[in-house]
Amino acid sequence: MTKEKVRLAILDMNNAQPNEGLRCIAEIAGTFKKEIDYEIFDVRAKNEIPDTNFDIYICSGGPGSPLEEAPWRKPYIDLMQQLWDINKESAHEKKHVFLICYSFQVMCAHFELGSIEPRKSTSFGVLPVHKTKMGKEDRLLHGLDDPFYAVDSRDWQLIQPRLKVFRDHGATILSLEKIRTHVEYERAIMAVRFSEEFVGTQFHPEADPVGLKEYFMDPSNKQVVIKTYGQRRYNKMMNRIDDMDKIKQTHDNIIPNFITHALNEIKQPVIS
Fold this sequence. Notes:
By secondary structure, this protein is an alpha/beta fold. The chain has 10 helices and 9 strands.
């Protein structure tokens, strides 16, 4: 027996704030439309939580503190824990989960993988990400250079990994923040494989270079970036968006790699 159409839940964690990420996730999912039906759930603004009957879950990034106490938090974490438990208990009906930035931080806090702390200053731009030894072998990062480039936009970060907890969960660190020789701050953990089915990134692999360029060329958005981060940071970011070997490579590989592997696993015939 094989499944026909795979069900994908996209969990919007943006709390009703304007964003490009949700559009990008939906567009990537749309490239698999012959195999996938997807549905979007507004988790933080409307307390919409899917059930456990989907096959694949992609959780977006979002603004604010990943430690915030709000009505959505317990139902969301309960769902993620249910999916985790299903994977532990079932040999066949696996649930595949991808966590992006905010949702990644929420679940790292839940699993107590390390410290979730505010940054000294916002990390913003198209920045290099370095693979770890495990990351170089992991299917999620296949097709990417080392370092590769990704859109980074965060006020919080995962640092100080609890390695025993990682080992107990069977989790591995796949990538780290850029090397900064001029400061003493710890490098943030940028991607984690929680299990065969759960994986997440602290950056935004969904970012589409064409849409992103249009968004930041809009005069109002451009002025916000320049006012907040300066003209030099804006110019550097726009140059990297134009470089087709940078975020396009990340956009074209990471989430598609995740979905392709999930589909292959889900479509495996179940022997009964």
